[in-house]
Predict the structure.
Amino acid sequence: MESTMTDIAIIGGGPAGLSAAINVIARGKSTRVFSTKNNYLERAARIDNYLGMEAANGAAMMESFRQHAKSLGASLETGKIITILPVSDYFMLNFNGTIVQAKTVILAIGAAKQKPLPGEEQFLGQGVSYCATCDGMMYRGKKAVVYGLADEAVEEANHLQQIGVNVTFISAKQRPADLASAVQFISGAVTAIEGETIVQAVQVNATSIETDVVFILRNVIVPTALCKGLSLQDGFLAVNRDMETNIPGIFACGDCNGKPLQIAKAVGEGLIAAQQASKYIDDQKK
Amino acid sequence: MGIIHPSTKDFDQLLQTNEVVLVDFWATWCGPCLMLAPVIEEISKKYEGKAVVAKVDVDVERALAEHYQIMSIPTVLVFKKGELIGREIGAAAASVYETMIENAL
């Protein structure tokens, strides 16, 4: 388990995360920015309320934010952070199965516009999983449903099939071209997860499909699934004016903190989170 | 005594002969389990003499994992006088496991 310690791990590469990154670097701290490919701003056709940029295009704006961060030496890494674990005076993060260590963490994970499926919370860890590469091996020779709500889901379904799991892929879209041929496909949506003490079936298109496990793969992970014990308020992360969450050393900025879901607010909160996270590290040394 | 690694066959005896036992179900290929390892070690030192801390590799002791319906790892179970009184799924902070043990002591 080799890994070096970074000062501040930033999770999310949108406006909040990148604003945090440039401000962390400005304070002489080391940082790594982890983000998935998915980004809301990227898909916005036109933004009219960001000061100094009239009728801005979302993709172009994102690109200029990224260029700015990169030019200052920010390391932008693509992939998923699956878990954050506080350990005495630092944090361990599971990044695509690799362990990353950081003194502090800034969450800039965006808004999770989702409600859990019926049964999802009840069966979490009892047949509901968010990570195929983490739990897949437990289900060799068994049946798995992969509910693909994110682009990366296809990769994870193929991985499961490869290690000997009998996989059914469910998605509202058409069968993805790169889905392994041995994987069964159903077009539809999972409406409920059923079982007694453990998962036994999922409901799809009003039909019950037997399974031992369901992997729910979304673009945005619920913050409380990312790090146990984080406090929420109205579904968003609860923070104070210093962007501190209830867990010392974890800060949050941007849409994951709640409304307004706007770029200017995200960038502003990113600045505060960066300053406070840097201060937190300096205070630890005293 | 440090962390012990019981097999399926001596697991029951372990529960019978110790008041409080914490068991970490893990596997070598599981990232979050490796993250949890130093936390479990810390716990074992802190409760030396008060609680027994054990680790079970689910690939080696499949029967044990199945018996306790371990479907996601890491999963940590706490037993008091042989009875299962706590289950925590996924890697959590040390304080979570400490509370589980304190509740059993």
User: Anything to note?
Assistant: Chain A has a mean pLDDT of 92.
